[in-house]
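Late entry, written up from scratch paper. The run itself happened at the end of the previous shift, but nothing got recorded in the book at the time, so transcribing now.
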Amino acid sequence: MIALTCRTGSARPTGQRTAPPLEPSGSSSCLDLPPAPPPHQVSDMISELMAMLGRLRGEVFFFVADGPLKHKLIERYLEEEESHGDILDFEFDASLRIKREAAAAAPAVEGRLEAGDFLYQTLFAVGDFAADEITELLDHLRPLCPSPAKPKARPGRSILRKKKGSGLLNIAAAANALGLSHRTLKTLVPCSEIRIAEEGGDKTIEEYFWEKDLIGRLAALAAAQKEGREANREDVTCIAEWCCDGDRQWARELIAEVLKHRTLAAD
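Output as recorded:
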């Protein structure tokens, strides 16, 4: 059982109660109902219904054919003390009107049965509807209460973080050139550029890039280390300008860490 805090208004019919002098239709197909949806779908349907009603402004009106909603209206009418069961022998129109008076108010669902001079009106709360009735209600409301358009994803944009040189390498190419893991590369060597994607107000980093000259210089120092040569003043100055905001001490420490992790990776 699904409990909602909506309250039904007075379900009192208005107008003539006597069945009109109409020709019998010879059919009571409105009582032949389709099977209800699986229980696990009910929660999702109620959430969708409440979201639609939350977007409703003003009112919507629609007729209902033979099915769960029309059956519910008939059942509600037959529960009345002064009802006439022979209404099922006549052709009549069934309709629903959903109106929202204010943004904070719960929508009122008004049901109507009409045939000639006969009119029956009643009010439903959202919590009055069973799963199969919600399914039909959603089918009517989806075209009338469309979902808001989702924000389109903006194309990725690049943000320059460091000095721009002759070209860029993505994280895979840069890590491969230095013999480091992607994680170690991002930890030790500040990237030269990042690409950011924005969707629905959320920003995410799509890719990291490093200057070819920077990675090339570090790779050359790794090769020189095997020959016993250490980084000279020019190496330190270039790397400081590329990724250390000109800080030469930071550049020396970065070079040492890259060479150490490269050696460990090789071992």
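Confidence is low (pLDDT under 50) at residues 1-34, 153-163.
(Scratch paper discarded after transcription.)
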